[in-house]
Amino acid sequence: MSEGNAVSPVVLGIETSCDETSVGIVRGDQLLANVVSSSMDLHRRFGGVVPEVAARAHLEALPQVMTQALGDANISREDIDAVAVTAGPGLAGALMVGVGAAKGLAQALNRPLYAVNHLVGHVAVDLLRSEGRHLELPTIALLVSGGHTSLLLIRDLVHDVEVLGDTIDDAAGEAFDKVARVLGLPYPGGPEIDRVAATGNPSAYDFPRGLTQPRVQATHRYNFSFSGLKTSVARWWEANGEPDNPQLVADVAASFQESVADVLTKKAIDAALAYGVPRLVLGGGVAANSRVRALAEERCREAGVELSVPPLSLCTDNGAMIAVLGAELIRRGQAPSALSVSAVSTLVSRTAQIEPGTRSTSGPTDGAEAPGADVEHTEQLDEAITGLQPTVRPSTTRARSKKAPLLPAIAVSCGVVGLALAPAFGAGIVPAILAVVFGHSAKHRPLARQGTVVTGLVLGYLGIALSAVMGTLAATPVIRALLVSVGFLLPD
Fold first, then answer.
1. CA separation (Å) from 237 to 87, 101, 257, 306, 325?
2. Average pLDDT of span 196-218
3. What CA–CA distance (Å, rounded) separates 338 from 462?
4. 10 Å Cβ neighbour count for 423?
5. In this predicted model, what pLDDT tens digit does every residue of 24-60 receive, in sequence order?
6. 406 closest CA partner among 430, 437, 438
7. Where are the beta strands (DSSP E) in 319-383?
8. pLDDT number for residue 75
9. How far apart are the C-alpha atoms of 443 and 259, rounded to whole Å?
10. For 140-193, how does the pLDDT look when each residue is reduced to its tens digit (9 = 90+)?
């Protein structure tokens, strides 16, 4: 890195977390280029983002996008001082394409690599002074897109990002897509609902506001839920909808949009006031929604909170925000990421940079567990409009599943033995009884397979019945002979 660039390094940023392939180039806080290629048209016929299609689209588009970005910035690859890349959160396959390309470029140019947090990047876009941006900390950040709905308290962009709340089911953008499909509007749903709602009445229908009731404030004050809202609109439309009535479609769209905007902005302002932070930053694709922006401006003005909303070109996923976050890490003297760093699809927004040594796509991200703990990490995937688009949530942990109890299998085995021995003068009575005993005991085991338990009980009861009949038939001559010998019966 030259002496002139030591203060203002040229950083190339790669963003491939979902369906936009983007490369941005900055010199310090000056934007040189920002090229975005969307694969939206490829996903439209599915009604949602298909991860495999998105990954292949990134692979095909990235070389051309990078070439165009270098041309727009009027620089060559050798002029790049560092490479930054989104390493999470996002779709695992899509992230891997970007991370792999960034590693190759960094190694080929012998430049440092910075693997950064996608969500923090949405806030870092306010560092672009050439675009009239200015980031003052601390700030509340409301990040809303098709895969994320997060409320963050950012005291320090690099080291201190606190997650105040997140969506517990559907993200806001995902709810827009699903409701749009219900109303017969094309994908992507966000822009379509925004367009149609312009002529609708937002007060026409009182759709629910998830997690705003007083009884849930202790546990979900800053969390979001849009699954119930989506379901409420779908059920209402199923009972009352008229697809050929454009005014009805507009009223429902406007009422739905009002519910989403109301919840998002109300919780964001509540957080700003509760934490004494008079600043709010909006980010993500849904931040481009006209009603969300208008209501945020109105409520911020009333509460005395300063609002910062990026221009539309910087609201959606873009490489510029990744590049400027990388430049900030360099300015702050952060060490580069190791080349062994991997995509972390469920990354939690606590730091701007993925720590060296983070290598799992679904592993621990918060250091909450001791090494070797008997847990496994899972991703919570929420079904999208077509059942194909996963919404990535913060990773959770669960204890390893215990093995199913042996009692059901023992019950079945005893039942089979009892039934097999029943014809032999009722000799199967004992194993048949054991089958019934073990079967009833297994019914109360939570991990027992109920089908196996029922099979064991049926075989046991059949074995008891057949053994009793066969035993009686076999014992009848003997019993008669004994009765005759003692004089209770007369001989034949």
1. 40, 45, 15, 38, 44
2. 96
3. 66
4. 14
5. 999 999 999 999 999 988 998 888 899 999 999 999 9
6. 438
7. 375-378
8. 97
9. 46
10. 999 998 888 999 999 999 999 999 999 999 999 999 999 999 999 999 999 999
Can you read off the two tokens belonging to residue 159? 């080291």
Instruction: Kindly state the greatest CA–CA separation across the chain.
Output: 125
Which pLDDT does position 395 carry in this prediction? 37
pLDDT value of position 136 = 95
Tell me how far apart the alpha carbons of residues 167 and 184 are, in angstroms, rounded to a whole number.
25
Q: What is the pTM of this model?
A: 0.72
pLDDT at 326: 97
What is the C-alpha to C-alpha distance for residues 212 and 232, in angstroms, rounded to an integer?
A: 16
The secondary structure of the chain in percent helix, strand, coil, rounded to multiples of 5, reads: 45, 15, 35
Contact criterion met (CB below 8 Å) for 474 and 427: no
Average pLDDT over residues 437-445: 75
Identify which of 102, 177, 174, 143 has the alpha carbon closest to the alpha carbon of residue 341.
102
- Nearest residue to 319 (alpha-carbon basis) of 80, 158, 50, 484: 80
* Strand bridging mode 20-27 / 10-15: antiparallel
pLDDT above 60 for 112:
yes
Tokens of 408: 């059901």
Q: What is the 3-state secondary structure (H, E, C) of 242-291?
A: CCCCHHHHHHHHHHHHHHHHHHHHHHHHHHHHHCCCCEEEEECHHHHCHH
Structure token digits, residue 466: 């057949």
Q: Dump pLDDT digits (tens) for 442-484.
A: 776 655 667 777 887 888 788 788 878 777 777 777 666 776 6
d(CA 487, CA 89): 92
Contacts (Cβ under 8 Å, ≥6 apart) of 57: 19, 21, 39, 42
Strand-pairing partners, residue 399, are 375
Task: Return the closest-CA partner of residue 440 out of 485, 462, 410.
Answer: 410
Residues 417 and 431 sit within 8 Å (Cβ to Cβ):
yes
Distance, in Å, from the CA atom of 181 to the CA atom of 194, rounded to the nearest integer, reads 14
d(CA 180, CA 146): 13
How far, in Å, CA of 396 to CA of 378, rounded? Answer: 6
Neighbours of 313 (CB within 10 A): 12
Return the SS3 of 347.
coil
As beta bridge partners, residue 151 has: 142, 165
In eight-state DSSP terms, residue 5 is T
Task: Select from 368, 314, 350, 286 the least CA-distant residue to 152.
Answer: 350
Nearest to 79 by CA among 181, 2, 161: 2
Percent of the chain with pLDDT over 90: 65
If DSSP codes are grouped into helix, strand and coil, which group holds residue 446? Answer: coil
Task: Retrieve residue 198's tokens.
Answer: 């312009």
Q: What is the Cα–Cα distance from 398 to 400, expressed in whole angstroms?
A: 6
